[in-house]
Amino acid sequence: MAGQEQKNTAGRTEEVEVPEAPAPPSPAAAQSTAATEGLDDLLDEIDGVLESNAEEFVRGFVQKGGQ
Amino acid sequence: MTAVRVMGAETEYGIHAPSAPGSNATWLSSQVVHAYALVTGERAAGGAEARWDYTDEDPLADARGWSMPRESAHPSQLTDRPDELTAAQIALEGGEPDPDRDPANRDPACGDTASTGNGPLMMNMVLGNGARLYVDHAHPEYSSPEVTNPRDAVAWDAAGDQVALAAVRQIARTPGLPEVSLYKNNTDNKSVSYGSHENYLMPRQVPFGDIVSGLTPFFVTRALICGAGRVGLGQDGAGAGFQLSQRADFFEAEVGLETTIRRPIINTRDEPHATAEKYRRLHVIIGDANLSQISNYLKFGTTSLVLDMIEHGTVPQLHIQNPVLSLRRVSHDTALTGLLTLSDGRRVTALDIQWLYLEAASGHALRSGAGAADGGDGQTHEVLRRWEEVLTQLAAGPAAAARSVEWAAKLSLLQQYRERDSLTWQDPRLALIDLQWSDVRPEKGLYYRLLSRGRLDRLVSDEDIAHAVGHPPDDTRAYFRGRCIQRYGANVIGASWDSVIFELPGQRRLQRVPTREPLRGTRALTGALFDRHAHAADFLSELLDTPR
Lengths: 67, 548
Prior knowledge:
- The complex is a heterodimer.
- Chain A is mainly alpha-helical.
- Helices cover 63% and strands 0% of the residues of chain A.
- In chain B, 38% of the residues lie in helices and 15% in strands.
- In chain B, the strands form six sheets. Chain B has a six-stranded antiparallel beta sheet with strand order 4-5-6-1-8-13.
- The two termini of chain B are 29 Å apart.
């Protein structure tokens, strides 16, 4: 598994930067501008439901193997 | 050319008890099954539980060992049980909390004492909607009933999420048990993955090599339309970034039998659960568990169309070089601009490959007439329309697909967080958003928060899903299985995909009814028979005397 990861390190490094790029403008992006006023509301709402102490919670989510 | 075929979904849920770290996962999973048995026991006369029939061909006598009512035996007495129960026993003997000894579980408020305080752990149920709910390894798994089309696949798969939710609620009401969360995802981001599998019925005579060559390029690029999205790169998620698929990094082979190690793009498990000479059940292990209805619909619908092209020899002839590495590159390429190399030297994007498959499917459907808006088969036209719509959106960038494609919806939310709070991809809050996206509780699950705000498209209503929780599909053998459980549950001591086993009062012999034809046992063929008989003995008497 570790070997597998290492082999792909080169390929991944260039991929990592991709999500950093801003999304290109698009028809739907324009549409979503109309919904932008609801955006802060949405993030506020999600702030309210996220488990507290993200780091600890995520670290604690450990699964046994599956299919 | 049609998207209509017998299909089904299997979902292993991630399971977590934050207040009881270190809880044994098998024990926790058995609590989920147990909890759902209590819930259905409250609303279904005779209960709705039955053991799984692991024997396909064995005579009835082989099932005799199961004739003792499970609730009267302690887990350690059940030496005749399948492997999955042994795992629970091991867990219990390893010093896990013993619910039998917990006085809180004898609280009458939590249900029938006989089935809780003194009962053994429950590892398997056959549900009244024809599904199976059981403990698979260390996860609760819901296997949907067989359906005939992608829309029903979405409804009966989503029904499983409601089953999971009902179990979580029941556990939360039970004193003495830790709060349990269930997640419809596929990895813990710590090198472990668990599956959501699809099953498609195919004619046995289709050469397996055709399936491999026809499906591989499609599967390498399918995450574009139905990836669930994941924060983290690599099996352990340590690489910074976002990718389209939960599962892609866990695939290490092109073709193979395994499902838990060296996972292959094409799985060769050959367990038809039906008349083996006629059918193959294609077991697909590469998909992500989907909450997004559009992604889930396209996952089943497009795959069924591609299989139809394989069966008719019209599938695009493409060969991607290094499919395993390409699968991963596609998943890591959120800009959708990366190029894959075909064996003929052409360099194409994943989106190009999806367009090639869509065009071939559209042409084939046009020729056969199945894809017509009116007079078609009622499914193919919609699958093709949605497929084209989503590919068009993706061509404009992920943001344009944020209402329909699950990974794009998740990425859009994450990007909003990143912009507001200037977060890097390593920030644990983004990992938490990824995890909590799939929490089955609507007040906690971020997918459900977006859905309730109208930010995601949907195909089936909450009413449709509630119906699918309580009813089997009408048009497959799941109807027979589900109605048997609902109507004669007290007399059904076991069931499987291709059998239902009855134990009648005063009869020493068990009655095993084989259901090896997936399109028999439908409402049209057996509905009146169920309606005519309130008692299992009368039902069986007429059933077995009647040529079917």
